[in-house]
Amino acid sequence: MSDPKVWLITGTSSGFGRRLVSIVLERGDRVVATARSLQKIQDFPQSPNLHLLELDVTSGTTVIKERVLGCWESWRNAGWTILTRQFRPNVCGVLDVTNAALPYMRERKSGTVVIIGSRSAWRPEVKGLGVYAASKAAVQAINLTQWTNPIPDYDKTRAETQVMYEAIPGRQPGDPMKAMKFVADVVRGEGVAAGREWPLYLVLGEDAEKDIRNKCMMMLKHLDEWQDVIRDVNL
Fold first, then answer.
1. Sheet holding 30-35, edge to edge
2. How many CA atoms, within 13 angstroms, populate the side-chain half-sphere of residue 232?
3. Residue 37, by phi and psi: left (phi above 0), alpha (psi -120 to 50) or beta?
4. Contact at 8 Å (CB) between 192 and 31?
5. Which pLDDT score, from 0 to 100, does residue 228 have?
6. Which of the four, 24, 61, 138, 224, has the lowest number of CB atoms within 10 Å?
């Protein structure tokens, strides 16, 4: 039998995080369960394998390090430095320039924002490209959001979006307990994951499968329709 794993699970006051805590404890692993308020997670069954920790994940790297990772003396901020070095120009910089230009374009009812992407966004698994690819994937997703959701009226759209998202909690399709059991299976290499290679992705839910298949079909259609242009840049 393998040694117990230690899980740091955030957002355990509700949703997937809360369900994952009970599943992990049932399997004999140890859990550090965090939430912004300890009062919201005091009802977890007492267990020697469970430690409750008050943590605001938006409090910044330094505070999180002191709260959670104090015993990991070798842990450093290098990863965060690399992350911000890529995201500040590639994502925040793009957004800042776009937001500065949009009011003038809207006033003139004319203008085009062109954002240069990278194929790295489609290949984040390549060694050494991770953080750069993540930044390009982020700006790609933001660009698609702007293209598919034009905003003629900021306040009206913001209000409609707020109403839409407030109606979602508790109405999502699927069983969240089953989903978290599958996550635990994959991490521990048992159950549905027994004998399988570690998955680079874990898609859960028919709605997620449908969205991904539709996106893949859309991209294949684009590659076919624009193949002449795509390949014409070759030397």
1. 6-9, 30-35, 50-54
2. 5
3. beta
4. no
5. 92
6. 224
Among residues 173, 193, 174, 172, which one has the least CA distance to residue 27?
193
Q: What is the mean pLDDT of each run of 10 residues along the chain (235 residues)?
A: 76 88 91 88 90 84 70 40 80 79 74 75 80 87 68 66 73 84 90 90 87 90 93 84
Q: How far apart, in whole angstroms, are the C-alpha atoms of residue 86 and residue 78?
A: 13
The residue to which tokens 């999502």 are assigned: 172
Cβ neighbours, 10 Å, residue 120: 16
Whole-model pTM? Answer: 0.64
- Smallest CA-to-CA distance from 193 within 183, 206, 203, 208 is with 183
Q: What is the pLDDT of residue 147?
A: 61
Question: CA-CA distance, 223 to 91, in Å (whole number)?
Answer: 25
